[in-house]
Amino acid sequence: WPKSTVCRESVCFGVVLGGCNCPIGCLRRWSRARSSGGKLRRPRGRLLAVGVLWTAATLSIYLVASLHRDATGSVVHDEWTSRYIGKRPPGPDPYAAHKFNQAASDEAAIGRPIPDTRHPHCLALHNSYDTAHLPQTSVIIAFHNEARSALLRTVVSVLRRSPAHLLKEIILVDDASDDPEDGLEIQQRFDKVSVIRNHQREGLVRSRVLGAERASAPVLTFLDSHCECNSGWLEPLLSRIREDPTRVACPVIDVLSMETFAYFPASSDLRGGFDWNLVFKWEFLTRKPDSPTDSILTPAMAGGLFAITRSEFRRLGTYDTQMDVWGAENLEMSFRVWQCGGTIEIVPCSRVGHVFRKQHPYTFPGGSGKVFARNTRRAAEVWMDEYKRHYYEQVPAAKGVPYGDISARLKLREQLRCNNFAWYLKNVYPELKLPENVHGYIKQGNRCLDTLGSVSDDASVHLYPCHYQGGNQDFRITKHNQIMVHDWCLSVDNSSVGQLVLLRSCRGDESQKWMREGGKIRHGAYTELCLTNNNMSAVADRCAGLDSQIWLTKD
């Protein structure tokens, strides 16, 4: 795979076997001559010398190979790799530059063996792919000031774990990184890699469109710049697209630890969805597939990793290039694909690792909140019809963020004769329930119940100064006596006094029932417990008429 020759396991093994030919051949010639009565003197000195040389060569090859391997048997950095990565070492805080542990990334071997996280049935299916007739792909990777080791790991994993005849090219789109050599040095090292460099920051969306315009293969595969492709990752995606060119095929996204860069499998029983804040989320399947190799239709895709035919990408209008930097482009494309005649699916036999970070490593012009709100408004205004009001009810502050001219995108929707959002909710995402009943807040004094941005199973709830902007403080009381925030319900596990009130997926069972009694909010099943403010955390404590148990609800 590199332009220069390197000692790979198969090459070294072949040389060792080749070294056997001379001594074995000498012995065979001596044996044949003796059996035929020929007068051939035993070449003892020659055999001894050859044997010594052969043994020395074998040992030297083994030692050279061992120098390229670490204790786990994975290939460690060669001279070029060490030089490339070492040009930008981590500082005193290895998390500062990239919001993941750069030191761990730099130390993790490039091209290392990783666990094959596919289901065993995928291994049997893998041999059935008609790879001779699968379409070629161009892999497009946009990056901005990416850690060199993470970028190189992504590229090398694509090269090593993709059939050579299916991988047409890798296009790196350098979105105005500080050092132009980040991509250029990789281009010089590997034949199939080319680099496009933006002279000014364009963001993920426009960078990917530039890469797609340069691509020459019939299938476009988009990857983030901090990935690690697993064995057999490409063939399942191309196979599904070959069967139906209107499909968008996504791999299961495994986890590269942001702390250690260890590779962990993700569940294949997940699909993509979102809440009315228009924030992407993973959700468990309501019904498991018949086979662990069956593809999973998903209402939304994460957006970082997917494959699509070049013709379909163009037909659908590529990306909304008026979106800035990053954010909401995945939901916009999800709506557009589904509403305009395509499908999106997760292919469980395709696995790619990805670093999930808790913070963005780069800045957003005007701030990340405004950029995300602008992008999200563009998606809502073009694709969601009257249902966009539910987004604005959840995020009222977004109304003050200009979203620009959307006339071209509305015209595209009309030209493609796309379905409306009601069709999408009915046919693609019927599980997304419309917000119901009461919207408002639950407060004591000037402090409101607030998720503080942590909205997931077992997240706790706190009190925070009321801002009356909805969002994390937009709690609603349903007709089923559930207290909901987004798609989560306040829950208690048992009758224990003083336990934290936690967010859980809304199930409608007794652990999530609450009753308003005057100013108190009493639990429906454990009626001796009331919602209580304990040092700015919401707990379920024994009802005692305390001030900390008196709440004002805004309906």
From TrEMBL:
Spans through the membrane: 47-65
InterPro entries: GalNAc-T, Glyco_trans_2-like, Nucleotide-diphossugar_trans, Ricin_B-like_lectins, Ricin_B_lectin
UniProt membrane topology term: Single-pass type II membrane protein
KW Ion transport (keyword) present: no
GO CC term (a single one): Golgi membrane
Subcellular location: Golgi apparatus membrane
GO molecular function: carbohydrate binding; metal ion binding; polypeptide N-acetylgalactosaminyltransferase activity
Protein keywords: Disulfide bond, Glycosyltransferase, Golgi apparatus, Lectin, Manganese, Membrane, Metal-binding, Signal-anchor, Transferase, Transmembrane, Transmembrane helix
EC number: 2.4.1.-
Xref: SUPFAM superfamilies: Nucleotide-diphospho-sugar transferases, Ricin B-like lectins
Pathway involvement of the protein, from the record: Protein modification; protein glycosylation
GO biological process: protein O-linked glycosylation
Ricin B lectin domain span: 438-554
Primary localisation category: Golgi
Keyword Manganese: yes
UniProt cofactor(s): Mn(2+)
Pfam families xref list: Glycos_transf_2, Ricin_B_lectin
Annotated family: Belongs to the glycosyltransferase 2 family. GalNAc-T subfamily.
Protein name, per record: Polypeptide N-acetylgalactosaminyltransferase
Organism from which the protein derives: Varroa destructor (Honeybee mite)
